[in-house]
Amino acid sequence: MTLKEKAEIVDADGLRRIVTRIAHEIVERNKGVDDLVLVGIRRRGVPLANRMAVKIREFERRTPALGSLDITLYRDDLSTVAHQPVVGATEIPVDINGKVVVLVDDVLFTGRTVRAAMDALIDLGRPRSIQLAVVIDRGHRELPIRADFVGKNVPTSKKEVIGVKLQEIDSIDSVVIKEMEG
Questions:
Q1: What is the pLDDT of residue 73?
Q2: Number of domains in the chain
Q3: Average pLDDT, the chain
Q4: Which of 78, 93, 139, 178 could be bridged to 3 by S-S, CB 3.0 to 4.6 A?
């Protein structure tokens, strides 16, 4: 099974606008940055959370607390993913008890990644609330999870894959839709 790129659905400028808009929405909904913690879900959620923090600093003159979360050991498909899973670091430099934590990820699909991220967060403390920000919501939920902040809703078939490419990882900013062949 190979993936063939069908189309670019968001270019670099579009991705910049999405990040900026979500950053504004987060500040507006939470009435500023007090008690706000942005937590990127590894891998692509981390640079996205960093970008949102930079945008928030630009217009609020204060940077929200920022962290990263590895959910590898919380996945419900861990045994099918790898025999020896590679676990990345979780780095949340503040106490999340009583805080508003905004989980940041690139694509919301089945909801299983978000459920794993919430389990990992709860093991670290008891936030006042957990919100979710995603660049793309592609549907096909298997769990009752919805994003609070969505860059773009992209209805997809199960044969399609959304690829968010980020400068920090992929040397380009773009969102593409790919289709499985074979």
A1: 86
A2: 1
A3: 93
A4: 178
Residue 146 forms part of a structural domain: yes
**Residue at token pair 């968010």:** 164
Q: Which two tokens stand for residue 29?
A: 């909904």
How is residue 37 written in tokens? 């913690």
Full-model pTM: 0.94
Helices (H), 39-90: 45-60, 78-81
Domain with 59, as residue range(s), is 12-78+85-160
Domain harbouring 20, CATH code: 3.40.50.2020
* C-beta of residue 55 within 8 angstroms of C-beta of residue 18: no
Q: How far is CA 42 from CA 85, 104, 155, in A?
A: 14, 9, 24
Residue 177 resides in a domain: no
pLDDT range class, residue 83, cuts 50, 70, 90: low
- Is 49 contained in some domain? yes
Exposure of 101 by Cβ count < 10 A (0-12 exposed, 13-18 middle, 19+ buried)?
buried
- In the chain, DSSP assigns E strands to 2-10, 36-41, 65-69, 100-108, 129-137, 149-153, 160-165, 174-181
Residue 180: inside a domain = no
- Region 124-134: mean pLDDT is 97
pLDDT tens digits for 136-167?
999 999 999 999 999 999 999 999 999 999 99
